[in-house]
Amino acid sequence: MDEVPSLVAVQIGTDRVIGVAAIDTVKFTMMVDEFLDDEQLSNLESFVIHYGCKECIIPKDMKKEDSRQLSQVLERCGILLTERPRSEFNVKDSIDEILRLVREKEKVRLNTNQPIAMGSLLAVIRYLELSADQSNFGMFKPIEPQVKLFMRLDSGASKALNLFPLQGESNRSNTHLFGLLNHCK
Fold first, then answer.
1. Does residue 21 surpass a pLDDT of 60?
2. How far apart are CA 31 and CA 166, in angstroms?
3. Mean pLDDT confidence for 90-114
4. How far is it, in rounded angstroms, from Cα 112 to Cα 36?
5. DSSP state for residue 10 in the 8-state scheme
6. Which of 5, 57, 65, 107 can bridge 24 by disulfide, Cβ–Cβ 3.0-4.6 Å?
């Protein structure tokens, strides 16, 4: 749980193509992916549950139906929703801003042919103001999460299984599966 990014950005494109991006400023990693989703956004819900995201950035001027559906999913998962201007998600002429932060050897691993996911990544970078600090240049390693390999758990199943500690509960407690497995040697 200590390695999960707490901030994720999400954009919904045409035909339910979801672009997600998350940055871990401790381990200097960036997760970027674009995937198809259904009307219930079950792949996205699995993603945010799997990575334990705490806050989600979305564009302000999303379609009402997409915004409503996304809000419902994030609310069920207990994730704070933050709206940002659409301009922060605009990738046009801004790929260099992303590439400046990526390690030289890792630039080939970053799939810049995913415009929706790159827009989400750019929104996280701008929200965290990573480009303003030159010490971040060349520090990040791109990681592509494998959403297809996730076990599909919605927020209700995750809560019913008591997988992770509730807010304020210790990670070492054995009242949840994570704490119980944390005691294993």
1. yes
2. 25
3. 90
4. 17
5. E
6. 5
Nearest by Cα to 80 from 37, 127, 40: 127
The one-letter code for the residue type at 118 is M
Q: What's the burial of 151, exposed, middle or buried (CB within 10 Å: 0-12/13-18/19+)?
A: exposed
Give the pairing type, strands 55-59 and 29-36.
unpaired
**Cβ contacts of 169 within 8 Å, gap of 6 or more:** 175, 176
What confidence tier does 2 reach under pLDDT thresholds 50, 70, 90? very low
Residue 153 CA, distance from chain mean position: 16
Provide the edge-to-edge strand list for the sheet that holds 55-59. 80-84, 55-59, 7-12, 17-24, 29-36, 141-143
Phi then psi for residue 129, to 5 deg, are: 55, 45
What are φ and ψ of residue 9, in 5° steps?
-115, 140
